[in-house]
Amino acid sequence: MDKYKRIVFFTGAGISVESGIPTYRGSGGVWKKYNYQDYACEEAFHRDPEKVWDFHDQRRAMIESCEPNPGHKIITKIQQRRPKTSIVTQNIDGLHQRAGAKRVIELHGSIWRLRSPENGTVVENFEIPLQERKCGDNTWWRPDIIWFGDALNQETIDSAMMALEKCDLLISIGTSAVVYPAARMPEIAINNGADTIEINPEKTPISHLFQRSIRDSASRALSELFPEFVGN
Ligand code: APR
User: What homologous superfamily does CATH list for 1-20+68-108+152-232?
Assistant: First the structure.
C-alpha cells in the first residue's frame, strides 16, 4: 500500500456501525424504523418542523454518545502521514472529524450544522437538544443536511470530483451504493485509472466495478490493509 500517495476514502454509514450508529438500510436501519418522507425531506420540514427537529435532536443525542472507531482513526493517521489523502463521506455524523480528520468532504452535509432558509447562513451547533429552533420571526433553522430530493452543494461536488479524478487508490467503505449522485462517484476514480477496493460485508450494485472487494467490517479490513497504522 506504500506506493499510493493520493488515496480517496469514500465512506458511507457502514464505517460508523462499529461506533454504534445504525445504518440506513441494513437490519435496524434508520429508514426501516422511520419513514424518511416524514422526517428527512423538505416537504416534511414545511409540514411539521417540530417533528423533524425532534427526530434530528434524537439523532444528535445518539451520535454525540458514540465515539469514532478504529476504522475512523486509521483513516485519520493515513491522512496525517500522506497529506494528499482525501475523505469523501456520505455520512452526516461528523465522526471522521472527531477522529481528527481534516478537510472532510461531506456530500450530504452535517447534522452538526444549521442553515437559515432565509439568507443561507450556515452555523455549527452542537447543542443537545438544539436550544433555539427558530432563526427568525417565523423561520426555522434547517439542518444543513442533503435530504431526499435536495440537490447536493455544487462546491462540495466539485471538491469530491477533484479528489476522485486525481486519486491513485479509491477505497469505498460501508456504502450500499444506492443513493445518487454519490453512488456514481467511484466510477470517476475508476475512469481516471485509480486502483480500487470495496470494503463491505455485503455485495453492492457496484461491487463488480472494483478490482478487489473485501467482505469484512471497516476497521478489520483497514487494519489488515494498513497494519502500520493500527493502534495509537
Ligand atoms: N463495516 C463496513 N460496512 C458495513 C458494516 C461494517 N461494520 N456494517 C454494515 N455495512 C454496510 C452495509 O452492508 C451497507 O452496504 O454499510 C452499508 C450501509 O448502507 P446504507 O445504510 O444504505 O448507508 P449509505 O450507503 O451510507 O446511505 C447513503 O442514503 O439515506 C441516505 O443520505 C443518506 O448518506 C445516506 C445515503
Answer: TPP-binding domain (3.40.50.1220)
